[in-house]
Design goal:
This protein is of the alpha+beta class and 270 residues long. The chain has helices at 64-72, 95-112, 116-129, 132-141, 143-148, and strands at 18-29, 32-43, 46-56, 79-83, 89-92, 162-169, 172-180, 189-198, 203-212, 218-227, 230-239. The chain has 5 helices and 11 strands. The chain has an 11-stranded antiparallel β-sheet with strand order 5-4-3-2-1-11-10-9-8-7-6. Helix 2 runs antiparallel to helix 3.
Length: 270
């Protein structure tokens, strides 16, 4: 085992500012399992994201509501984000492009889906797409974006490698504690841990990261949410060994992941 390499203030630095990586994401909630793959291409503080192979319980979207949620996400990708030095989302770089894609899709969806539930869903989605602030807010509530772009870099930990802070999740403030491993494992990786408490609501968040020591890239991570000490959902990401190359052109619609931003299986099963 080796010592973890820290920066000033015992903070974790971002060692690579140009990279490509792919992850398998899984959301387990009750008996529902949602899986997909995410590809990221980072250059400096900019990152382009694609997602594909969206499955519910190992099958493509089948129910009408699942298919609607699948189609409603077509406009989102490719998604380009600008990050701050902590790794949080600063703004959506290609928002106008996304908005234009959505306007075209919005008309098609309303022409095809006429039942009350679908029309309501489409209009709620429309509201989120039509303002940058609302779309960014939706992204920040999404499990993948909340976990991966969680601002783990360049945060001062102090001499005890520990800090406390308040973080808002879906409109609710959680009191978080953060600490890190001092030594690496046999693969030269180390753990970063965050635990958030909301005592009034009896809710708890656990975030776990496994980081590569040299470049501080995320190898795997998990996001667990508890209510009254019973797990509500578990979301995980794991880096894939082979990173698929990015195409300079449009990703074919049938291959691109098309899911809406909350990823809640119960929203897909009406």
């Amino acid at each position: 085992m080796n010592k973890v390499i820290f920066s000033n203030g015992n903070s974790i630095f971002r060692g690579v500012l140009s990279s490509q990586s792919s992850y398998r994401a899984s959301l387990q909630r009750g008996n529902s399992l949602l899986t997909y793959e995410v590809q990221l291409e980072q250059k400096g503080n900019s990152v382009q994201i694609e997602a594909k192979n969206f499955l519910i319980n190992n099958n493509p979207p089948d129910l009408m509501a699942e298919q609607l949620a699948h189609k409603a996400g077509q406009a989102l990708y490719p998604l380009c984000l600008s990050l701050n030095r902590q790794g949080d989302i600063s703004y959506i770089s290609n928002y106008e492009e996304i908005k234009t894609r959505w306007q075209k899709l919005y008309t098609k969806l309303l022409a095809y889906y006429v039942d009350a539930y679908s029309v309501h869903y489409i209009n709620q989605t429309h509201r989120s797409y039509t303002l940058h602030s609302l779309l960014k807010e939706k992204l920040e509530k999404n499990y993948f974006f909340f976990l991966y772009f969680g601002g783990i870099y360049n945060q001062t930990l102090g001499v005890d490698f520990y800090r406390e802070y308040t973080l808002r999740y879906k409109g609710v403030d959680f009191l978080f504690s953060q600490w890190v491993d001092m030594e690496t494992n046999e693969n030269n990786c180390f753990g970063l841990y965050r635990e958030g408490l909301q005592e009034e609501r009896d809710e708890r968040i656990e975030l776990r990261y496994l980081l590569e020591n040299k470049h501080k890239s995320i190898e795997e991570a998990s996001f667990s949410f508890f209510k009254s000490e019973k797990i509500d959902f578990l979301f995980t990401i794991e880096k894939l060994e082979e990173t698929a190359s990015f195409s300079t052109g449009e990703t074919p619609t049938e291959e691109r992941m098309q899911f809406w931003l909350d990823e809640k299986p119960e929203n897909l099963n009406h």
